[in-house]
Amino acid sequence: MRKLGIIIFFMLTAPMATVAADEFLYWGVMFGQAQVKGQDPLGANFNYDPTNFTGRLGLELGRILSVEVRAMRSNKDEDAPGEKLEINYLGNAMVKLNIPFGDVKRVNVYGLAGYSGWKLTRDSGGDISHDTFDGPSFGVGIDLIGDGVNGLNFEYVRYGDYDENGLSYNLDSASIGYFRRF
Q1: Phi, psi (rounded to 5 degrees) for 108
Q2: Distance between CA atoms of residues 79 and 45, nearest Å
Q3: pLDDT given at position 14
Q4: pTM attached to this predicted model
Q5: Band of the pLDDT at 173, cuts 50, 70, 90?
């Protein structure tokens, strides 16, 4: 978790020292469906689909490269009666490689790569566990920019892929969002 904090600190402070004419700061919010799917140490499969809310802050470094930090929270989802899971928090730092279409940059297809830290709470019939994890993240998406300032985005991100001590799962999210440059 300390690694994630150091990454977020440098991503927020170092690039913001100067913002050139072709660089834009932006913020955004996303609403999506996460999927936590895997197998517990006893061999039982689980599949949770909590809805999530994500806030993001980024810096476009020209047309091709952006850096971004994110924070996510989810509601509780029930896999079976008495089986619940919640994403308490997820913090993420990403590098975003943009492929803009056209000179006015109205459509952007992008790839994401970064690092995430998250905490899950799982309630299995009264047996509550709180687990904290971290690891690499990656994803793809598309930005649709309306007036050069406001836009919508659609994306799919794998925030985590965990396999240790008999517990294995993937933490994925498909989201739609709004962002604004400033």
Answers
A1: -125, 120
A2: 10
A3: 53
A4: 0.82
A5: very high
> Rounded distance, CA 79 to CA 76, Å?
10
Closest to 98 (Cα-Cα) out of 54, 71, 67: 67
110-147 pLDDT per residue, tens: 999 999 999 988 887 778 888 888 999 999 999 998 88
In whole angstroms, give the CA distance from residue 139 to residue 113: 7
In three-state secondary structure terms, 3 is: helix
Mean pLDDT along residues 64-74: 95
d(CA 182, CA 132): 34
Among the listed residues 130, 135, 179, the one whose alpha carbon sits nearest the alpha carbon of residue 157 = 135
Residue pointed to by tokens 């991503």: 11
Q: For residue 115, what are the contacts with CB-CB under 8 A and spacing of at least 6? A: 3, 4, 7, 92, 93, 134, 135, 136, 137
Residue labelled with tokens 């566990």: 129
- The amino acid at 67: V
Q: Which two tokens stand for residue 12?
A: 């927020």
- Among candidates 117, 108, 3, 132, which has minimal Cα distance to 70? 117
